[in-house]
Amino acid sequence: MTLIDTPAPTPAPPAPTAEALDALAAELRELLGERNVSTEERVRERASLDGAWMSPIISEQLPLGLADVVAFPTSAELIAATVGAAVRHGVPITPRGKGTGNYGQGIPLAGGLVLDLTRARAVVEVGDGFITAEAGAQMVVLEQAAWKTDQALWMYPSTAQSTIGGFLSGGSGGTGTIEHGSNDRGYVLALDVVHADPTGVLVHVEGDGAQPYVHNYGTAGIIARATVRLEPLRDWRGVYASFPDLPSAMRVVRQVGHMQPPPRLVSADNPEISSTLPPDDAIPAGRASLRAIVSADMLHAVADAVDVAGGRIEAVREGPQTSMRISMLSYNHPIEWYQKATDRTTFHVEVSGEALIDRLAEVEAVYPHGLLHIEAGHSVPIGMLAGAYESAEQVYDGIARLNELGVGVHNPHQWNVDFEVERTVRLARTTDPTGLLNPGKLNPDYAGPRKGAIK
Ligand SMILES: Cc1cc2nc3c(=O)[nH]c(=O)nc-3n(C[C@H](O)[C@H](O)[C@H](O)COP(=O)(O)OP(=O)(O)OC[C@H]3O[C@@H](n4cnc5c(N)ncnc54)[C@H](O)[C@@H]3O)c2cc1C
């Protein structure tokens, strides 16, 4: 594979004039109040960067855009009114949750308005099997609200402090994915979305009508309020185990991942990555670490599997904090800890498939200093493969070699919408006819595969 997958920003809408920006800022101050609108440089800069620093390929291209105005609407209705005002002034709008998305999807490539949604965060209702919240509500807050009713979220990402709007628009899965797959598979029951419409109204969509707004970075509509699925709370336990090496831990990842009832999470790291995780007696130095969230009635079966694979149980913990803590050491997090600890410039690619386990040595050998973090997935194992960074070409050549090994790869070094692109383009033609919603992200010509996305 060559550099063809490195994105060129799609043509942006005409840059807003200084008059349009001034008029918008003035109107928003009236609408939202002085403290919920900012044109200060420090605030604009902070609102213009997300977790893209994890990618050396994107980092080399920074800064990619700077907000002119940042608005902080405090309710779903005010989100709609703010979008309406920006559309009337012809100003591009980039929605933003906690800004943890790690492909640059939240960077305002065309400047204009960054719509920071973290102050619209009301939990509206917790019902039997569902929770409704405004876009800026944090996933951890939703999980806590669910636990109070003896329920739990179907899933949440390892960035548990991120927002429901951001997770549905930019994320894929996390704790709960083993059972429920990725977040585009029935997790969303209903949404109130805002189109690029000068009247600034909320549009209610449900069931199949809501799915086309998931995982496309707000390019077809901005999520103002969401209803997602809950399930009955189980007696979850956090299990920490350690092994002499990663292959032994991986056998247990595979085995426990297939147990019934399904675990909520099973993650493992080799000793080198494990040693960079936050200090914990249950993650001993020099050993591969496995962390899992399983039902209490599975503990014996898990202990047997650990024993047979030559490992040992380090701790079994309970309570909501345990689940959260283990979740926050899953998916991209171990790579992030490792990246911060190592002197090497490190990148990662998102990988999946049985080959991760069956051909570990070959998979890790694809990149210099290749190290795999692994998760039990919904149908196949998924992981993050880190390597020492040399060039974009090296990363893409490696992706081709991984594909040859039978490994699915999702490229986290580009910001184009790469999920249901055609469907989103079709929808956006009516919901955003002038291309004001998160400009530069929806490129109909982008042909990059989303092979290996969380399934
Ligand atoms: C260390 C690390 C670990 C991660 N782990 C996971 C993981 O386990 N699972 C996972 O899926 N992801 C993971 N991610 C990616 C990201 O953190 C999550 O997807 C997160 O849920 C995004 O939420 P956010 O509030 O930070 O969104 P942001 O980063 O602010 O936004 C994400 C995208 O959605 C758009 N957007 C934001 N809010 C809205 C809205 N209301 N309506 C429409 N569009 C909107 C933004 O413009 C952007 O394109 C990880 C990232 C890092 C850096």
**CATH homology-level superfamily of the largest domain:** FAD-linked oxidase, cap domain/gating helix
Radius of gyration equals: 22 Å
Taken from the alpha-carbon principal axes, the silhouette is globular
- Strand residues, percent: 15-25%
The stretches of 5 or more residues where confidence is low (pLDDT under 50) are 1-6, 449-455
- Report the average pLDDT across residues: 95
User: What's the N-to-C terminus distance?
Assistant: 24 Å
- Helix content percent band: 25-40%
- Biggest sheet: strands side by side, in what order? 14-11-13-12-16-17-15-18
Question: What characterizes the major β-sheet?
Answer: 8 strands, antiparallel
CATH class of the largest domain: Alpha Beta
CATH topology of the largest domain: Vanillyl-alcohol Oxidase, Chain A, domain 3
What structural class results from the helix and strand content? Answer: alpha+beta
What is the name of the CATH architecture of the largest domain?
Answer: 3-Layer(aba) Sandwich
- How many helices? 16
Report on this model:
With 455 residues, the protein is α+β, with helices and mostly antiparallel strands. It has 3 domains: 3-116, Uridine Diphospho-n-acetylenolpyruvylglucosamine Reductase, domain 2; 123-233, Uridine Diphospho-n-acetylenolpyruvylglucosamine Reductase, domain 3 (2-Layer Sandwich), CATH 3.30.465.10; 236-405, FAD-linked oxidase, cap domain/gating helix (Vanillyl-alcohol Oxidase, Chain A, domain 3), CATH 3.40.462. Helices cover 30% and strands 22% of the residues. The chain contains 16 helices and 18 strands. The strands form 3 sheets. Strands 14-11-13-12-16-17-15-18 form an 8-stranded antiparallel sheet, with helices on both faces. Strands 5, 6, 7, 8, 9 and 10 form a 6-stranded antiparallel sheet that branches. β5 (123-127) and β6 form a beta hairpin. The chain binds flavin-adenine dinucleotide. Flavin-adenine dinucleotide is lined by residues 50-51, 54, 94-102, 105-106, 117, 135, 157-159, 162-163, 165-167, 169-174, 217-218, 222-223, 331-333, 336, 438.
